[in-house]
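Many introductory courses stop at the sequence. We go one step further.
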Amino acid sequence: MNTLLALFVIAALGYFVGGIKIKGIELGTAGVLLVALVFGHFGVEIPSIIRNFGLACFVGSVGFIAGPKFFRDFKANAASYVLLGLVIILSGALTSVLAVKLGGISAELSVGLLTGALTSTPGLAAAQEAAGELADLATTGYAIAYPFGVIGVVLFVQLVPRIMKVDMAEERAHFEAAHTAKVKRYNGWLFKFDAAGFFAFMLAVALGILLGNVHIPLPGGASFSLGTTGGPLIMGLLFGHFSHVGHLDLTVPVEELKTFRELGLMLFLIGAGVSGGAGFVDTLKQEGVVLFLYGALMTIVPMFVGFFVAKNVLKLRLLNNLGSITGGMTSTPALGTLISVAETDDVASAYAATYPIALVSVVLCAQFIVILFG
């Protein structure tokens, strides 16, 4: 199928599927992932640049939107975010180790399942490097666990508020009151290249990609980088926070940012879904359904452990809790869903605060599990 045609057909069918509600629950944009998985299974290919372009647009826009309030929120809850990111990843890593010890699967396959369950491409790269000649096992595990890793968190952030029967309007009011920031206005003259803010947005993403390509050495010979997710996210936060440099206006209208956010998420899910769908059924048949169940556990256990700790130990309110869960699970699609459920973009600040520590943790855990148990 023509690539351009496939892109639009998958998007249209994906939004159709995502808009179907069953007892008030819908997949939303994540419906695109399901359709993309099917198309990928039947041999449709989408260039990886589409996925990366979408990811950069999504996280860049999230950063711009969250930037004005992010640093104040992080200062107030930094310890909670760091602890929660560690708890989520370590509980997933422990589940992975138990799968090796009790389930008898190889460490390389188990960390592949872990990184797929956490939808962490940097984690997979670290696992592949540590696995050496057995890197294909890590790749297989990632492919098996990835689909549920996406859909599981997307459903979680929708089901929890319904199960707890929370008043979302009340939760949103509490959350927004706690995240109200005094945005400093610059009273001098400002020069803006274009009314839509494309210059500022593209500059932030470009600088973010450069930042994401900086590699930091880690124990064991591997390296860590922020990648296409972390780099543009951080630059978006900085641009959104400062809003100008000297007399140069770096703001982007909110409506444009929301368009970039939705378009980016859609393109990312199409690319990720088509890639994950290729050979998924065959791999599952060869390796067994039990591996899918192990992968599902590596998604479910960290979510519930993280939610329990955030609610009962750290005393975070629901939206802060769920925002942190999406960051701790490094789940970009779930953040998009949570924004829709919460009806406020401010939840992105909790995601942005928890995401970096989770990203570093999953990279390190993937290496250590292979080194210690491989």
